[in-house]
Structures are given as structure tokens and as C-alpha cells.
Amino acid sequence: MAYRDINKKRAYYRAWSLNHRELLKTYRDKWRITHEKEIKAYGVKRNKRLKHDCLMAYGGAFCVCCGEKNEMFLTLDHKNNDGAAHRRQIAKLAGYAFYSYLRVQKFPQTLGLQVCCYNCNCGKNANGGLCPHKGDWA
Ligand SMILES: [Zn+2]
Ligand SMILES: [Zn+2]
After folding, report:
1. Ligand 1 centroid to residue 113 C-alpha, Å
2. d(Cα 118, Cα 111) in Å, to the nearest integer?
3. What percentage of the chain exceeds 90 in pLDDT?
4. pTM of the complete model
5. Distance between terminal CA atoms of the chain?
6. What's the CA-to-centroid distance between 123 and ligand 2, angstroms?
7. 138 pLDDT tier (thresholds 50, 70, 90)
8. What is the Å distance from ligand 2's center to 108 Cα?
């Protein structure tokens, strides 16, 4: 039967879904299982986009040291090597949690962040703050 009154229809649906919680949950679980690939792909795409937005907000999608352009290799680097201290400050956020934190904060420019590849980032940390590309490594 068709409801003329949209509010009545809504109330009916609400009551129905309260009485069929388990059934609805089963539907959702089923959907999640049959759409696992799409859900995962969507997550990957969303994360890529999030990371890209962060890279662009902090100077562009390339390593400031060696010019690496593959975003898979890129990360955000703390110019003043105070990454650990800063991360402690913002509750040990890492990876995508850190990226979404930045987006929520509208990409603050006061954090001293720059784009670096993992190589230069690690090299810099291992070499006391200066990437081995820049010398001081024999
Ligand atoms: Zn690099
Ligand atoms: Zn480098």
C-alpha cells in the first residue's frame, strides 16, 4: 500500500527497521562481503587523494631533495627534524591518520613540513639532519 503522507511512511519504516535490526545487519554484512573489493578500492583511492592533497599543500608532489615524483615514495618531512616531538604532540598520529589530521586542520603552514621521499627522509634522519645526497657521506 502506498502512503500519501511521507511522515507516516517514515514512521512506518523506522518502526520496521527497529523490529528488523538483525535482518538489516545481515544485509549489510552480506553487502560488505560481496563488495569487499570495491570497498577496498574506494579506500585506497580515497587515501591516495588525501595524501596527494597533503603533498600539494606542502610544496608539491615531488621530493625537495632529489626530485622523486612517484607519490608512493613521498612522505611529509619535518624541516627542522622535530618530527618525533611534533608527532608526540599530536597524539602519535602516523600515516593516513596524520594526513587526515592535517586536512581537518586545513593544512597549517606553521608545522615546518615539506615533501620528501622516503629515501631522503630516512637518509636525513640517519645522517643527523642532512640528506646524504647533500654530501657529508663518504
Ligand atoms: Zn628524495
Ligand atoms: Zn636526498
Report:
1. 15
2. 19
3. 68
4. 0.73
5. 82
6. 7
7. very low
8. 24
Q: What distance lies between CA 51 and its chain's CA centroid?
A: 6
| 57: nearest Cα among 73, 76, 70, 44 | 76
Contacts of 65 (CB under 8 A, 6+ apart): 116, 117, 120, 124, 131, 133, 134
Residue 78 β-bridge partners: 113
Q: Find, among 120, 103, 102, the residue nearest to 111 by Cα.
A: 102
In residues, how long is the chain? 138
pLDDT at residue 137 is higher than 60: no
Distance 116 CA to ligand 1 centre (A): 5
- Whether 40 has a pLDDT exceeding 50, the answer reads yes
Rg of the Cα trace of the chain? 23
